[in-house]
Write a structure and sequence with these properties.
alpha/beta; TIM Barrel; Immunoglobulin-like; 2 domains; five-stranded mixed sheet
């Protein structure tokens, strides 16, 4: 028993010694230095834990893009009842065609959805239609829009600057702003609607527009004029409406190599012609996307579109209607356009020679803030004038003159400013007219 007790004590001692050896520091570790007598011991530094980067969130799996989807683009102009005109269809026919789009199995998508699909950013249904309305006809606001709302169809307006706020059957900037706020897509149709490929083609535009085109080419050169039509029209819409413009529709569907170069230079994502065809994921190129230009005089075009028949090119350039508008820039006015005057009761005058053969009884003048005024028209000098009698108060005024000339209604407008102090009196700068407000 005594021997067993001694053996147990020896084993316990060995175990204790083994634990001490196991806990001793390795040869590489240095013993901690002891503080000198009387010194305050500094606690050992605590190692800061390295921040652990959160695991990256898994990227959402993008929905598959159906590269076999197909779209068509329809191009409309004026929606109006009455005598049949070029590129005009009746209200009933327009509504009927909107129903047929649905009946033929098309899903109407917005132009921006189509472009996002082409960028590979989103999917679209297998069979789609895009609806566009060109120029800026007032019927797009008064007639087409209510019908498109009824069908819940998105659509795009291709607007050319010189037609907006020109009176007659044109849209106003306020109407465009209202449509913009409702989600309508607004894109460029150039500045003057001149033929980008052949700007001096005699039958392409009316005489007044041709005069403006010639003046711009004389001042800017043909390339400069083309840049104004393509690039400046984009900037004007963006500035006036506070939007981003990324698509252009070529007037008459015409373009050439130089046009395409400037379209790319101007930052456009898409250019549209009037060569109706199927639109695929990768063809045709971004700057020559085809549209079916619907015309009541050629109902087969809409039939071809519903059948998605390739081709469908309208023979020759599209001769769109001539618009009864005259730019103030081509007239002699008093005060001059954008001029600032100091006279509170000015004489307002304009020479209407550029109107053509004017019916004297039809001449009317309106002034913002004053309404219709009793202006006088002198047929011999072709001048309309009005002496303001009540003192001006507002800082800016718009003068609108309308008449019947050569059997059609024409209209023009210009702005001038008023400064009662007379400090800013002087002629307007020679810069081109901005879009009317």
């Amino acid at each position: 028993m005594k021997n067993k007790l001694i053996l147990c004590c020896l084993l316990a001692g060995l175990s204790f010694a083994g634990c001490k050896r196991h806990s001793s520091k390795s040869p590489e570790e240095k013993p901690a230095e002891q503080p000198a007598a009387g010194a305050i011991a500094t606690p050992p530094p605590v190692a800061k834990a390295e921040p652990v980067a959160p695991a990256p969130a898994p990227k959402p799996v993008a929905k598959g893009i159906n590269k076999n989807a197909v779209a068509i683009c329809l191009c409309y102009h004026n929606i109006e009842d009455g005598k049949s005109k070029a590129l005009t269809i009746s209200v009933a026919e327009f509504e009927k065609e909107m129903q047929e789009i649905k009946d033929n199995g098309f899903t109407v998508i917005g132009l921006q959805d189509f472009l996002a699909w082409r960028r590979g950013e989103k999917d679209i249904p297998a069979k789609c239609a895009i609806i566009t309305l060109d120029d800026g006809w007032a019927s797009a606001y008064t007639t087409a829009w209510p019908i498109l709302k009824k069908f819940n169809y998105p659509f795009t307006l291709f607007i050319y600057i010189n037609y907006v706020n020109s009176g007659g059957k044109s849209m106003t900037w306020d109407q465009l702003a209202e449509m913009r706020d409702a989600g309508v897509d607004i894109e460029s149709h150039t500045y003057s609607h001149g033929d980008l490929r052949s700007p001096l083609r005699a039958t392409s535009v009316d005489k007044r527009t041709m005069g403006l085109i010639k003046a711009d080419i004389a001042a800017l050169g043909q390339d400069g004029w083309m840049r104004k039509e393509i690039v400046e029209s984009k900037r004007a819409l963006e500035k006036q409406l506070g939007i981003k413009v990324n698509a252009i529709a070529y007037p008459f569907g015409n373009y050439n190599k130089k046009v395409l170069e400037i379209v790319k230079e101007g930052g456009y994502e898409a250019g549209f012609t009037v060569y109706g065809r199927q639109l695929h994921y990768s063809s045709p190129g971004f700057d020559s996307l085809g549209r079916y230009a619907i015309d009541a005089k050629d109902p087969k075009l809409f039939e071809n579109a519903m059948k998605m028949i390739g081709g469908g090119e309208i023979s020759g350039p599209v001769n769109e209607p001539l618009y009864a508008q005259v730019a103030a820039a081509s007239m002699i006015t008093q005060p001059m356009s954008s001029e600032t005057i100091g006279t509170p009761t000015p004489l307002i005058k304009a020479n209407l020679a550029t109107f053509g053969q004017v019916d004297p009884a039809s001449v009317k003048m309106r002034i913002s803030g004053l309404g219709m005024v009793p202006a006088k028209y002198d047929a011999a000098s072709k001048t309309v004038s009005f002496q303001v009698t009540q003192k001006l108060k507002d800082p800016s005024y718009t003068v609108i003159i309308s008449a019947v000339a050569d059997g059609k209604r024409v209209e023009t407008q210009w702005n001038f400013n008023y400064d009662a102090t007379g400090k800013k009196v002087g002629p307007a700068p020679s810069a081109p007219l901005p879009p009317q407000q």
